[in-house]
Amino acid sequence: MNKTSTAIHLRFDIRASSLPEYYKERLLAASHHLITPDGVVIIKAQEYRSQEMNREAAVARLISLIQELTVEQKSRRATRPTRASKERRLASKSQKSTTKSLRGKVRRPE
Which residue, of 62, 75, 80, 106, is most buried by count of CB atoms within 10 Å of its CB? Predict the structure, then answer.
């Protein structure tokens, strides 16, 4: 039986941390399941059999969480389709229309 307690609960208070203000704002604004409404990140690590390894894993997960939530998203720039792409689309539509019109019943000339 496993009788030693090797799990780690890492608690990281965002407001009391020495992170830059920009990072704090981004983390507090994010709605993530690891961040409590009070602004505390709680990570439980229990994948390894030694407490030291679990501690390192929890810190690594905290670092990756901070990096993931503070990355700046590129803003989308609206674009228009080119003239050539419009022409290709219309040509393909007319080709399909022709193909489908030829699928009808064959009528005998009278």
Answer: 62
